[in-house]
């Protein structure tokens, strides 16, 4: 099985413009993400997918591979497909690597790719056990319910499932809740299919793209990671991470 890691990196951002180019201890964020992805032992290839010449030029300065994609993509998934279709190499699985996680763990990339040893895996993602009440009730930390084979049943910004008859301060003690870690991997053919789907009811309600796939019958395999993932959405997030 051959795999490619694609790092979507757009210049425009409402909360943090030019985020991929911000300097973190002497290197741009996009360089740090790229270098971490290259450390994965399971990836065969890594490329940045951008919509901006400034990001393109910076990636070239550290000898990274980069392709230009449309400015009109609504999601990183769409940008990944755009980049994948430009590749002249063959691959079976595409990993969507978040461009705002400068210290992403290479072992998490390896873990998500391990899901594809099962032939019935179409899409894969990572989840992590929730260990604190703050995360449990934070709507910015999507939760996921798993079936007995670790396929996702549902994602929600709410805490799910509801524990009837249990005081909320005790929920973490009596049930394993999982939060979603926002890395995805897809079989290439599946990626092409899901990018043709229209936004769905649940997706619009929760603003979670993965619900579109579930509503259309796709199954999402999960792997449980014990490592945290730290994304940078605002300048404050950056200050907290590096200090």
Any descriptors?
single chain; alpha/beta; Spore Coat Polysaccharide Biosynthesis Protein SpsA, Chain A; 9-stranded mixed sheet; 10 helices; 11 strands
Shape: globular
Uncertain stretches of 5 or more adjacent residues: none
Query: For the CA atoms, what is the radius of gyration?
Result: 18 Å
Fraction of residues in H or I helices: 25-40%
At CATH level 2, the architecture of the domain at 1-104 is Alpha-Beta Complex
CATH class of the domain at 1-104: Alpha Beta
Query: How many DSSP E strands?
Result: 11
The biggest beta sheet, please? 9 strands, mixed
In words, what does this structure look like?
The chain is α/β, with parallel strands linked by helices and 243 residues long. The protein has a domain at 1-104: Spore Coat Polysaccharide Biosynthesis Protein SpsA, Chain A (Alpha-Beta Complex), CATH 3.90.550. Helices cover 30% and strands 23% of the residues. It has ten helices and eleven strands. The chain has helices spanning 29-38, 53-61, 76-86, 106-114, 133-136, 171-174, 188-194, 201-206, 210-215, 235-242; strands at 3-9, 23-24, 27-28, 45-50, 66-68, 93-96, 123-129, 143-146, 152-156, 178-187, 220-224. Strands 1, 4, 5, 6, 7, 8, 9, 10 and 11 form a nine-stranded mixed beta sheet that branches. The termini are far apart. The model has no long low-confidence stretch (mean pLDDT 94).
């Amino acid at each position: 099985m051959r795999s490619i890691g694609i790092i979507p990196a757009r210049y425009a951002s409402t909360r943090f413009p030019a985020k991929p180019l911000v300097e973190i201890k002497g290197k741009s964020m996009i360089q740090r993400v790229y270098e971490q992805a290259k450390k994965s032992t399971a990836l065969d290839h890594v490329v940045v997918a951008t919509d901006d010449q400034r990001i393109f030029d910076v990636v070239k300065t550290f000898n990274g591979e980069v392709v230009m994609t449309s400015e009109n993509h609504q999601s990183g998934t769409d940008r990944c497909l755009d980049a994948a279709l430009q590749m002249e190499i063959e691959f079976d699985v595409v990993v969507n690597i978040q461009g705002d996680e400068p210290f992403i763990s290479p072992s998490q990339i390896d873990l998500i790719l391990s899901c594809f040893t099962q032939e019935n895996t179409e899409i894969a993602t990572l989840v992590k056990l929730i260990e604190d009440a703050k995360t449990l009730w934070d709507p910015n930390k999507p939760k996921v319910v798993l079936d007995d084979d670790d396929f996702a049943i549902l994602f929600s910004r709410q805490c799910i499932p509801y524990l009837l008859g249990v005081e909320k301060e005790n929920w973490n003690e009596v049930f394993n809740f999982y939060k979603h870690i926002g890395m995805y991997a897809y079989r290439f053919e599946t990626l092409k299919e899901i990018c043709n789907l229209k936004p769905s009811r649940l997706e619009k309600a929760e603003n979670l793209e993965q619900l579109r796939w579930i509503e259309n019958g796709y199954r999402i395999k999960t792997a449980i990671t014990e490592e945290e993932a730290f994304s940078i959405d605002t300048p404050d997030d950056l200050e907290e991470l590096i200090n």
